[in-house]
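Input sequence (416 aa), recorded before submission:
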Amino acid sequence: MRRTRSVILATVTALVAGGAAVYFGGNASAAAACAPGWSASAVYVGGNSASQNGHNYTAKWWTQNESPATHSGQWDVWADNGACGGTTPTTPPTTQPTTPPTTQPTTPPTTVPPSNGTLPKHFLTGYWQNFYNGAAALKLAAVPNNYDLIAVAFADATSTPGAVSFTLDSGLAAQVGGYTDAQFKADIATLHSRGKKVIISVGGEKGTVSVANATAATNFASTVYSLMTTYGFDGVDIDLENGLNATYMAQALRSLRTKAGANLIITMAPQTIDMQSTGSSYFALALSIKDILTVVHTQYYNSGSMLGCDQMQAYSQGTVNFLTALACIQTQNGLRPDQVALGLPASGSAAGGGYQAPANVNAALDCLARGTNCGSFKPPATYPGIRGAMTWSINWDVTNGNSFGNTVKPHLATLP
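Predicted structure, token format:
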């Protein structure tokens, strides 16, 4: 997210240099007996096995209705164990592994995906600016009712590796006639009484939070949890625009989930280029915590042109094609549709490039959910569960007459 209007240009050359996903097939030279046949209705957790099309597969984490034939690979949910032979049983697994993998929660879900903190099926996220940069200065309780999830921007790094802190900005307080910690906490409680969720966003354009080892991961989880208990935050948003370590950030988020429980909301706000390939650290993080991840609202702006999921051509930012062709990279490469949302600036002043009319956002949501109102690009499938949209920022939206929230929020209610 941007505190200024600087532009990050990401060219197709940079995209290719970022590397593509690497997939590994099985070894057909030593065919084993086939595991029970995969069932779309069955729930599998890490360590469960299934077979499909003459191959055995092992689940890496919780999954349901994700075909091993199309969801296996280095960063995807299924590991391809190679060709199998003999009779393939048709009965799906009825028991779970007695010892879940150490990287997964100690009690994986058995019937439904993890809780997303009672958020609506399709919801609108907005960032609330804890600083003043010319956009409307707001106390938290003044956030318009359009927003279901409010991300407070931002928590900042401390001198302790991985640790974060939060302090109300004095410049903002001056703009709103004073703002104390007690008032801020009361405003979070007010938003809760309206049925809203409030999370703390970590990082931003100028953020320097680094979680690069196990100690930093522990510090991150402990300090974020402390902010949650102090202020009443419902979760955390990862908006690290200066690089992240997928391994240790995943460790930190799993530790936080253990502390906070199943209602913890975890969101991510990667830049466009960060979600172009499953080999990128952001995409790898999203896949590795898929069982506890709420949503990824990619920033589809400040990016220049990018390749879509067809890998055939570059699409220009600021168009419906850009949104649909890039969103399907995530839905085709391991994330559930309900974990994908479209992130856009609320006005031309909110970003250096990539602003487009909110009506385009609605058209892109229709295209992804129903296959209607598409541009020249049409995704390879429809995704009725597409989660919704995000905007940077609530403050810029208010400055722009609430155009984004007033246009997109009602449309979300019309999605399947």
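Checked by second reader. The longest strand covers residues 149-157.
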